[in-house]
Design goal:
The complex is a heterodimer. By secondary structure, chain A is mostly beta strands. Chain A contains no helices and eleven strands. In chain A, strands 2, 4, 5, 6, 9, 10 and 11 form a seven-stranded mixed sheet that branches. In chain A, strands 1-3-8-7 form a four-stranded antiparallel sheet, with no helix packed on it. Chain B is mainly beta. Chain B has no helices and eleven strands. In chain B, the strands form two sheets. In chain B, strands 2, 4, 5, 6, 9, 10 and 11 form a seven-stranded mixed sheet that branches. In chain B, strand 4 and strand 5 form a beta hairpin. Classes of the chains: A mainly beta, B mainly beta.
Chain lengths: 118, 110
């Protein structure tokens, strides 16, 4: 079955960077896009960007341009989200999700809590 | 910057019908935005309900349906059950492979 397993919780200081991983299994990794979505405590979902594992093409939401980098390692069937210049407002649960087209994010990782605190 | 709008809360009686909508701060929602809907309960990742306007995801009961109503996308729950008490998010394609989520709607069944 399709599974997306994310790395564990992180605590970072303001100004630091964080890198979250998303290990995919149960399907052909290069066949579907992987998207990243975050959710601050008590807030709504916020779309960050995506990667096409087949060719490494990336798209980022304007809000995160310049601070976010999404990469992938096809041999490890893993995608990565790196967010730099962290601030307290970046405290959130970060999710990866498989996109199969038409707005269908059909499988999600369990989420990774990133806490930014001095 | 485009804002996707949702009414924040709804209350429905068990067995009743409720319609959630998803609009744009500027312009109309159309099928070109591939409106999609997600259900989320506390502490869980979102679950896909409806994608591409009106296609139900695998395993989703047929009491959930999607449509375009006027200039907005809509999610209708017909015959609401207590299990449907959740947060619901719409998401729209903005082109170029990017998406924007709405602010979410909390549905209470009582």
């Amino acid at each position: 079955q399709v599974q997306l397993v994310q790395s564990g919780a992180e605590v970072k200081k303001p100004g630091a960077s964080v890198k979250v991983s998303c290990k995919a299994s149960g399907y052909t990794f290069t066949s579907y896009g992987l998207h990243w979505v975050r959710q601050a405590p008590g807030q709504s979902l916020e779309y960050m960007g995506r990667i096409t594992p087949h060719n490494g093409d990336t798209k980022y939401s304007q809000e995160f341009q310049g601070r976010v980098t999404i990469t992938r390692d096809t041999s490890a069937t893993t995608a990565y989200l790196e967010l730099s210049s962290l601030r307290s407002e970046d405290t959130a649960v970060y999710f990866c999700a498989r996109g199969v087209g038409g707005g269908n994010f059909d499988n999600w990782g369990q989420g990774t809590l990133v806490t930014v605190s001095s | 910057q485009t804002v996707v709008t949702q009414e924040p809360s709804f209350s429905v009686s068990p067995g009743g019908t409720v319609t959630l909508t998803c609009g744009l701060s500027s312009g109309s929602v159309s099928t070109d935005h591939y409106p999609s809907w997600y259900q989320q309960t506390p502490g869980q990742p979102p679950r896909a309900l409806i994608y591409n306007t009106n296609t139900r995801s695998s395993g989703v009961p047929d009491r959930f349906s999607g449509s375009i109503l006027g200039n907005k996308a809509a999610l209708t729950i017909t015959g609401a059950q207590t299990d449907d008490e959740s947060d619901y998010y719409c998401v729209l394609s903005m082109g170029g492979g990017l998406w924007v989520f709405g602010g979410g709607a909390k549905v209470t069944v009582l």
